[in-house]
Here is the input.
Amino acid sequence: MRTLGSALLLFCGAVFLLAGAPQQYQSTGFSSVRPILAAQCASCHGAESPAGGLRLDTYEGVMKGGVSGKSVIAGKPDQSLLLRRIKGTVKPQMPPGGTMRSGDVSKIEAWIRAGAKQ
Here is the structure.
């Protein structure tokens, strides 16, 4: 019975810690960045007529890249063209006419750093 109590206490502690963890570390799959890309990028980089041959509405499209080359290099956000354009270190900055919220940029960066997993 004592072992069961210890296990329950350990489990509850883990749940408590995870609940308080920053969201960027809770989910690092494509589903964590898909809503951002859909809202900020898919109007130009969607299925209809993707600008620069780059589709950002699907995982496959993001990983394939466009006419400028690969958009994401898994595990290497500083070398990923997608993030470099979003941050404005490579022109033209995206999205055109505005910037993304820093929290959204951080989520994309965390996703790439974690391996850009599906």
